Amino acid sequence: MKHRIYNIPNSEQQILITTDVVEFFGTYRQQGAEAESGGLLFAEFDFPIIRIVEVSPPQPTDKRWRTLFIPNRVFQRQLIKQRFKKGHHFVGEWHTHPQGKPSPSTLDLESMADSFLKSKHELNYFIMIIIGNDIHNLELWFSVHNGVDYYQLKENKD
Ligand SMILES: [Zn+2]
User: Fold this and answer.
1) How many angstroms does the Cα of residue 130 sit away from the middle of ligand 1?
2) Fewest beta carbons within 10 Å, which of 25, 56, 110, 148?
3) Which helix (H) or strand (E) holds 77?
4) What pTM was estimated for this model as a whole?
5) Which residues contact residue 18 at a Cβ distance below 8 angstroms, ignoring those fewer than 6 apart?
């Protein structure tokens, strides 16, 4: 699989998902009766490129159902601090849906707005990636959120 690039609207910045991370997402596509998976996204800043280089896998203490995923927030806060020390910045979250072409639920949108407002960070947006379950074609929902609005970004095919 190949890396993916997304342009942030009204900005010079681009978000790149590395090949390794795209492949990681591919392995978590939700098959059959499997529960949702999810975790955090970490990036290296090389402006104007924001490079998503690391993602955290689901944890045994997360709560997981077929159409709902509730992460262990205490674990996540510790991980964010730890990764920050090695220059990997927390930039958002990923989770899976049992849908070919994934789109966010109302709860997903509310929870992104809420975490943007409640966490300490210096970002303009939090990123949300949702992984579809089409085994032939890895479909990703990609959006950026602030406390008020969100924008769905389309992959830059150039
Ligand atoms: Zn969802």
Assistant:
1) 7
2) 148
3) helix 73-85
4) 0.94
5) 3, 51, 52, 53
